[in-house]
Amino acid sequence: MVIKTANFVKSSGKWQDCPEPTIPEYAFIGRSNVGKSSLINAMMGHKDLAKTSGTPGKTQLINHFLVNEDWFLTDLPGYGYAKVSKSIRKDFEKLITNYILNRRNLVNLFVLVDSRHTPQKIDLEFIQWCGESGVPFSIVFTKVDKLKPNIAIQNVEHYKNELHKTWEDLPEMYVTSAEKKIGGEEILAFIQKTNEFLKNNNVSFDE
Ligand code: GTP
Ligand code: MG
């Protein structure tokens, strides 16, 4: 997909404040610092569209970007940020889960996990929740530039094996690096294909 325009629309503190849900939406989620905002920037070819930081907990609101005047790309706050109090963490979880369950134009959630680690409990629990809640999602491995290719392949296989313990059908998976601009094209191709399908089938998000 060619990115002609990518513009910040607004930041929202709750799902009710998000922009009108009239066009398809795709959201990035994952634990704090996994690289959500960086991958959005890499895919959009725009260094500073979404705010990034080496310190976890940078994105604290739901951020909407309008792409090609046609669909929304959404940057969500990370889950599992350890350095805030339990009650604030709970507030974030609520913000995220309410958004996911209520946003009726949300077509697919991209769950980002760090390609360097073995499957983490918090990510597996979130993926489990998506599956049980009927939320359509894909898994995106991030920061693959930090790994030797054979280790990256091993880690993805490890993830598949872990998920196969619970699920027969596995979600789509993407291996990416914001740093080296790897994998973003594949995600955009999926989004393009999905948008075309929605258009061809006259899918509307009206209530
Ligand atoms: P929160 O907003 O805090 O939830 O974090 P986030 O998931 O949006 O992460 P962000 O994009 O801010 O990136 C966190 C850190 O990881 C930054 O220091 C980035 O430079 C670094 N980073 C992100 N993507 C990559 C990547 O593909 N490769 C490398 N080497 N570093 C990356
Ligand atoms: Mg962020």
Automatic annotation (TrEMBL):
Cofactor field: Mg(2+)
Role of this protein: Necessary for normal cell division and for the maintenance of normal septation.
Family classification: Belongs to the TRAFAC class TrmE-Era-EngA-EngB-Septin-like GTPase superfamily. EngB GTPase family.
InterPro entries in alphabetical order: G_ENGB_dom, GTP-bd, GTP-bd_ribosome_bio_YsxC, P-loop_NTPase
Name of the featured protein: Probable GTP-binding protein EngB
Gene this protein is translated from: engB
GO biological process assignments: division septum assembly
Organism from which the protein derives: Chryseobacterium kwangjuense
Keyword list, A-Z: Cell cycle, Cell division, GTP-binding, Magnesium, Metal-binding, Nucleotide-binding, Septation
Ranges where the EngB-type G domain occurs: 22-197
Listed HAMAP family: GTPase_EngB (MF_00321)
Superkingdom of origin organism: Bacteria
Recorded GO MF terms: GTP binding; metal ion binding
